[in-house]
Each structure stands twice: as structure tokens, then as C-alpha cells.
Amino acid sequence: MEDKHTMKCYVKDYPRPQFVRSNWENLNGTWEFRFDDENVGEKEKWYAGFHGDREIRVPFTFETKMSGIHDETRHDFVWYKRELQADAARLEKEDYLLHFEGSDYITKVWVNGQFAGEHTGGYARFTFNITSLLKDGANELVVRVEDHFDMQQPRGKQRWIDKNFACWYVPVTGIWKTVWSEYVSRVRIERVKMTPVLSEGLLELEYDVTAPEEMLDGSLYAAATVSYEGVLINRSLTAVMDRHVRTTVNMFLKNNHKLEWAIRTWSPEEPNLYDVEFELLRGHEALDKAGSYCAMREIRIDGPNILLNGHPLYQRLILDQGYWKDSNMTPPDEEALIEDIDKIHALGYNGLRKHQKIEDERFLYWCDVKGMLVWSEAPATFCFTDYAVEEFTREWMEIVKQNYNHPCIITWTPFNESWGISQVETKREEQHFTEAIYHLTKSVDPYRPVIVNDGWEHTVSDIITLHDYEEAGKIFKARYTDYKEEIMTTEVYHSGSKSAFANGYAYKGQPVIISEYGGIAFNNDDAGWGYGDKVNTQEEFIRRFDEITTAVKEVPYICGFCYTQVSDVQQEINGLMDMERNFKVDPAAIKEINERRVGCWRSYM
């Protein structure tokens, strides 16, 4: 797997590939497990001497085959236990951090019977410093996770009734991403926010530092060493006078042979990445060190165009829900993530819309390395209450902050098809909520486009995205060519029921993308579903795919598309692959159609 395209910081299975330290332990594997259907565990103090009645393979949830349990019935309270080994000599000098990449939904942790912390939310990473709770040798780690069929929780495609329905699937309860630990210096870099400023050839760095007050006297320095393919680009050294430090790095590479300066930009065709090493120095001593990488790329809106590095970008996207047959939302292994990216490329797509899920961060790493554009979409709530607003806002901000540095992410998509904001077309409080999330996202990331709300009933949105599952290319082309003015108003455009804009909002010349279409399924005796009529043969599939995809490309003001979808997901059988990732049709034929140029394309990236 490791080849010339991987970064120096790359470590197989490392869960946080943009901030890599050496002293870590993967805690996945066999844990003790127990259901707590009567919710008596805390009252009976299971966290003090817990004994499971079965085993589970973490990070797979009990609903999956790969967990070793495979029970798809509802259990709202679950408990886990495993042993941790700690070194007293190290604990005297270093902190021991316990990381959960994802645990759905309310997670409580105890170490040796003592409470370590609690986190709410199913999709973002969270960390507990458990140093003071550890002893030399064996330690008992106990985890309780609480989840519900609560439509106020950001849940994405997880069903909230006992059976699958429409496009909602088996839920994910408990730990579903990697659990790991690391020893770290007590004086350390907590996070670095990296922002490329391509127009100036600069990389902006914002350090968050953990250090005692008495060390913020100029004796600490944050260092960043940037290189490209082994050639030193620059090194910055910044005095740490506060726990938040800002600086910039000049990213121009001098070519002594041609006497010119150059920036290596990131794009799908040339996903150039720079290696970065971060250090926290005191004198000549490195108190903390982490490996990372970055890219120089710019994504911005220019009237009806989306520009990547100053050039119009035509986006050939595919909807990716990230489900696997035997493990649901948890990838079976890192190779499965790489396989998906490679097969999406083989189908002729230059990007994907990760739908209603925050994927394993190793997936984003490989999208960075392989040049796959990503739209990052929030898992939706499904009702509008004060609690839903609070939960969504907090978790979405955690997600944006966690994944900010990945150059593959070019768009944030916090809302989809008015899910959780079902009356956004007319209700001002729901419109205010979408505006608030838009501006909060922009306050953290003013550079990437933000879509509100994908599919229809947009409020404030940098891109206008429309969902249309019309089967016939001629009808589609006529609709978007002859009725553009009507579509780009609050008039009905979709299936006679939805409008492009919420009341009080209007089209202001933004780029337009068809962000869902297609969804073609093969006829299989009514088992499962796709959009529109099912097809009977591969030839019929390719003919229909060609007709509708070509029609989308022939509409001159549309600057991209997103086909539904990568693979089948449980009862939804409209993937270009089945759940085992077998192609249903010749990928070369799909690639040729996707990449075929038509006269009105503004870019062929």
C-alpha cells in the first residue's frame, strides 16, 4: 500500500493521519460487552468491576456481522470493557490521551471505576486525558454508550423505527470507529489549523498549545518544517507567547536551474502534497513532535463558475453513502477505503459527495493523496426543536474543525433536502437556523463554499444544487433549457412539489449543480428499489445512463453533477456496484460517458 504517493507521516491504520505521533496504541479488537436493556448499569455501578456476558469486536457495532454479534434489534444502552496497560515511569512525565474516533451517541468512560468523561454526538472525534486515573500495569477501561430512536439527534441514514424503510437503514449504536491512545508531552501542540493562501504563496498556521503560564515567556517556539518530495521549502520558528499562535510560511520553491519560483498546486489531476513536521521547542529540545502534510489549493466562487486554483472546475461527482455489507458504516479495513476511491476513479469521477456521514479520516487522507474531491455533508436531524438545533450546531462545528485541513474537502454541506428543517420554505425560525449555520461555518472557514440546503428550498447558499431523478434525457434538457427562469425562482421545479428557493430568497447568479440524479436499478423481482423504472440489461442501463448524463452536460449553465450512487445500500439497489463492490456494468463504459466532452462544457477537469 505504501508507495511514492503516500506522505512521510503515513502510518497504516493510524486514525488521525494529519497529525501523527509515534507513541500510540490501537485499542480495537476484542472487548467484553453487555446489553443493558433495563438501564440499570449506572445505578448498579457496573463501571466498578464490570463483567460482560459476551465479546464484541471493536470498532464494529453489535448490529453488524463483523462485530461477532449481529443483532439488528434495538438496544439503547450498551457497555464495553477492556484492559489498558500503563507505564508509571512515563505517566510521571507524560499525559495519556484516550481517543474515540466515533461513538454514537452519548458516551461515558470510567477508568479503574473512576469517571473519566462524557461526550455527546455520534460522528466527531473526542478525547479524554486519563493520566490521573491510571496506575502502573493493568487498568480497567469501561465504556457505556446510550443511543435512541430520537429524531432530534444528528443521525443521518440511521432509521428511527424497528425496520428499514425508504432510504434509511440499520442503525449504528455504540463504538463504530477506532479507539486508540497515545502518550504525549505535558507541554504540547494540541492542533494546527493550516490555511493555504494561494494568491500570496503563503501557508497560514494557527497553533493551539498546551503549556503552563510560566512557560509562555518566549522560551517556547513552535516550528514548522515544510518540504516537497524531500526538498526543503521553508522552516518557520514562532515564539509561543500565548496558547494560540499565528504565523505564515512562504511556500515558493526556488528552482535554481530555471531561476524561477513555483508553487505545486493540488488538483484531481495533480494532487501535490507538501510534507510538514511540527515541533514544540525549548532551546534545542523538542518537547513535542508531529508529522503532517498540506496542500496549496484554492476553491472559490466566481459568478456562475466554481474555480479550483483560478480555473473553472466541472465536477463529476458520485453520491457515496459509505456502507459495507457486513460492517454497515464502519469500513472493514483501510484497504476497503482505498478500493472505493480507486473504483470511483475507474468510473470516471473526479469527486464524491459523502452523503449523511462523516467518514473515517483515513478515507480523507487517501482522497488527499489520490486527488478525489469531497463534499463533506452533515448527518441530519429529522425534526426541528431547540434541542435539535443545539445538538446539530455543536457537532457540526466539531466536524468542521476536525476535518478543516484536508485539501480534498472543497464544499461543506450542512443541510440536505430540508431534513430536520421540513418547513424551511416558509418558516422564518428554520430559515434563521440555516443562515446561522452558514455564517458559523464561514466564520471558521471563509474559503470553502457552503451549500444550504442541498436539493431544494435554498436560503443562503454559495452553490445552487438541484435533485432531479428524471429518466429521459430529452425531457431533462428541455426542462432546464426552456424553463431556467422559472426553475431559478421560488416556482416548483421538482416532481411538482419542491421549489429551488425558500420564500424570501432568490437566485443571485450562483453556480448550479445537479447534485442528485440517476439512481438506476436493475430489475430483480421487486426486491429493493431504485429511482424510476428498473432496467433489464446492461445495455439498457448504459443507454439510459448515457442519455441522462449527456443531457446534464449539455445544459450550459450547469457546472457539475452528482450521480446516485457508488454502491447498493441494503434495500437501496441503485449503485454502480453491489454491496460487495462488484461492478454491475463495465466501468470503462461509464468512464467514457462521464469524461466525454460536449460543446458547452466550460472545463474538463
From TrEMBL:
Keyword Membrane tagged: no
Keywords from the named record: Hydrolase
GO biological process: carbohydrate metabolic process
Highest taxon listed in the record's lineage: Bacteria
Domain Glycoside hydrolase family 2 catalytic span(s) in chain numbering: 301-586
One GO MF term attached to the UniProt entry: hydrolase activity, hydrolyzing O-glycosyl compounds
All residue ranges annotated as the Glycosyl hydrolases family 2 sugar binding domain in the record: 25-149
Record-annotated Glycoside hydrolase family 2 immunoglobulin-like beta-sandwich domain positions: 187-297
Similarity comment: Belongs to the glycosyl hydrolase 2 family.
Name of this chain's protein: Glycosyl hydrolase family 2, sugar binding domain protein
